[in-house]
């Protein structure tokens, strides 16, 4: 929308009244912001370039919200029923608001956000829009369906209101207004209520409105319009897919800006740059046109912050340039009725598209070619400087390859490089930007080959007694710079995590050793991380550890030897007790085996598994009928897989021999 200003109006000091509440805050502007606004509708938006504030009226809640340039709320003026149009005084000290629900124009301090004056426009006038021109405040109003314009002069001791300044135009409902400081005696009035496209241009330099041009076209109702800085042209948003250009001298149509359907907002910067907005769920929301250009230099498509499939849309008339600055402010709403202030930075700069391509793979120390192209809505000249950075294993923070001024007239470029390091190599090309273009960057990755080093690890497949300390030795062959090897131990069982047991440089023979206490089967891994010329590599060695198994015999009355074997002697009526101690693991069982000796051979009687207690013990008592003088033996074993787990190597305990007597 417009940033309306007056060239001569002083700050109003009379009839100061307090409307509603004033909430004060402070803050600094920040670029590229999008903040949710505490509003439920949008009537008008103006930007105060002196105090760096944005004012937004909310008719549905009867308030004006003031934010900083990042959208942070600095103050709220409430008690302004159905407030619509806004305008700034020439010195930016006062904000004037049209308040139809109170039949008044209210002045608000732009420093404190406190209302400083109320000017009645007459009973049942309901002023909606406002503009400052010819040393007066001009407002639009209606009586029933008949619209008109009036003026308010506050330079004297008492305010002077003059109604009925255009009784002959036949406005249907309240019209819209616009003025510009570059043509202080010019006022434009348009019909937003019907499809008649009625416009009027007025000379207000003499204190009254003298119509100098009129038009009743066929473009549809005027959702918004804005004057160029010198007042010679008027840009209109009529709801279609164009923003039309008209001469103010005779309102003849001289061209248009092609935009999106539902054109609903427009504002013109001090240098003549046009921001043309549309209410569009699935297309561009804002197009920016440089002076005398018909192709947009910048386009904005708002994201979707609601639940509807379409994106957020621009509110009617909700565009405003920063006076004398480069920001463009827009108010958008989503499908949930949430409004946001969007700060569009660098809107007059063309956004380049930069592409970079490189081979997917390449050999190390061999020349390769990187190509690319940079394009923009505003063409870049040949020789545009681009900088290149190479990132690889040896230069993880990037190494500058200098500036490549190789773009041709089409924006294409290429350069060669010989990558000294292997692995993933990234070439990043950067355009720094300029007064007419934003910065851009793109990159391409190349997988550069590396040699495979020799790496080995001993002890694979070996079996060791329980708790034996075993040294595992890794051997690393030729590499470039890195001579560090890591040795990891991963014991079997989910309760024992993989653990780094040693990391260091190999010795002059290329060896590095680490000791593992073998209480479980363990996979040991040697890892070489690689370097600029040799790829990473890892090797594994799995060694196994026996379980610890011992069995004691009790309740016998003596021991004695039969041949060279020691037997425990039990009375026939005594139940032998065999207590096995085994390395504990959750859910582990021992296998108990029983054999008898008959005619020179041992015969299997049977085996059975018994659970090991958390104390690592399992006690078995033999009961039942038994014969005397029969030689028997038993042993307890851990069976890998059969005992309920696989964390140890199959381990058999010693045979225990016994015999029953009378």
UniProtKB/TrEMBL annotation:
Arranged from A to Z, the UniProt key words for this protein are: Signal
Q: Which Gene3D superfamilies match?
A: YVTN repeat-like/Quinoprotein amine dehydrogenase (2.130.10.10)
Q: Keyword Signal: yes or no? A: yes
| Signal sequence coordinates | 1-25
The protein's name in its UniProt record? Ig-like domain repeat protein
Q: What organism is listed for this UniProt entry?
A: Streptomyces paludis
């Amino acid at each position: 929308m417009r940033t309306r200003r007056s060239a001569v109006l002083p700050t109003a000091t009379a009839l100061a009244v307090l409307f509603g509440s004033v909430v004060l805050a402070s803050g600094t502007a920040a670029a590229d912001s999008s903040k949710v606004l505490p509003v439920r509708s949008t009537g008008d938006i103006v930007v105060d370039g002196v105090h760096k504030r944005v004012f937004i009226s909310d008719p549905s809640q009867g308030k004006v919200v003031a934010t900083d340039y990042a959208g942070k709320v600095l103050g709220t003026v409430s008690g302004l029923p159905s407030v619509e149009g806004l305008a700034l005084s020439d010195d930016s000290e006062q904000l004037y608001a049209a308040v139809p629900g109170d039949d008044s124009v209210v002045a608000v301090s732009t420093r404190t956000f406190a209302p400083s004056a109320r000017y009645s426009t007459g009973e049942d006038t309901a002023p909606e829009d406002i503009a400052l021109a010819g040393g007066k405040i001009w407002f639009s109003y209606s009586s029933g369906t008949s619209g008109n314009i009036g003026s308010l002069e506050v330079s004297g001791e008492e305010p002077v209101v003059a109604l009925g300044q255009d009784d002959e135009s036949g406005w249907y409902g309240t019209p819209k207004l616009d003025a510009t400081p570059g043509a202080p005696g010019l006022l434009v009035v348009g019909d937003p209520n019907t499809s008649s496209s009625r416009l009027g241009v007025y000379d207000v330099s003499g204190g009254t409105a003298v119509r100098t041009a009129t038009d009743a076209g066929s473009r549809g109702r005027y959702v918004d319009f804005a004057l160029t800085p010198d007042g010679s042209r008027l840009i209109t948003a009529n709801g279609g897919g164009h923003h039309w250009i008209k001469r103010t001298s005779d309102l003849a149509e001289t061209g248009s800006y092609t935009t999106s359907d539902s054109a609903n907002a427009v504002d013109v910067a001090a240098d003549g740059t046009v921001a043309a907005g549309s209410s569009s769920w699935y297309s561009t929301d804002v197009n920016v046109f440089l002076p005398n250009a018909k192709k947009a230099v910048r386009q904005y498509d708002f994201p979707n912050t609601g639940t509807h499939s379409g994106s957020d849309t621009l509110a009617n008339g909700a565009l405003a340039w920063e006076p004398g600055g480069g920001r463009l402010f827009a108010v958008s709403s989503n499908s949930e009725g949430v409004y946001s202030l969007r700060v569009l930075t660098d809107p007059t700069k063309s956004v380049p598209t930069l592409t970079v391509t490189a081979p997917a793979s390449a050999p190390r120390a061999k020349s390769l070619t990187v190509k690319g192209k940079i394009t923009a809505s505003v063409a870049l000249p040949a020789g545009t400087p681009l900088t290149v950075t190479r990132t690889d294993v040896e230069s993880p923070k990037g190494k500058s390859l200098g500036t490549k001024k190789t773009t041709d007239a089409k924006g294409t470029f290429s350069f060669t490089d010989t990558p000294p390091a292997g692995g993933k190599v990234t070439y990043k090309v950067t355009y720094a930007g300029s007064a007419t273009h934003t910065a851009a960057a793109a990159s391409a990755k190349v997988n550069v080959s590396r040699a495979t080093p020799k790496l080995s690890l001993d002890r694979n497949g070996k079996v060791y007694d329980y708790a034996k300390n075993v040294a595992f030795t890794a051997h690393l062959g030729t590499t470039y710079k890195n001579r560090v090897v890591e040795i990891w131990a991963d014991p079997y069982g989910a309760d024992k995590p993989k653990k780094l047991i040693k990391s260091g440089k190999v010795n002059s023979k290329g060896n590095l050793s680490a000791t593992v206490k073998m209480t479980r089967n363990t996979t040991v891994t040697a890892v070489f991380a690689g370097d600029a010329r040799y790829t990473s590599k890892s090797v594994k060695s799995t060694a196994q550890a026996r379980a610890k198994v011992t069995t004691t015999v009790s309740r016998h009355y003596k021991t004695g030897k039969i041949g060279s074997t020691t037997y425990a002697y039990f009375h026939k009526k005594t139940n032998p007790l065999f207590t096995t101690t085994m390395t504990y693991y959750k859910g582990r069982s021992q296998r108990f085996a029983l054999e008898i000796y008959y005619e020179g051979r041992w015969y299997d009687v049977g085996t059975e598994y018994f659970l090991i207690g958390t104390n690592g013990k399992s006690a078995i008592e033999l009961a039942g009928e038994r014969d005397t003088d029969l030689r028997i033996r038993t042993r307890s074993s851990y069976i890998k897989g059969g005992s309920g787990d696989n964390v140890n190597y199959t381990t058999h305990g010693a045979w225990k021999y016994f015999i029953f007597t009378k």
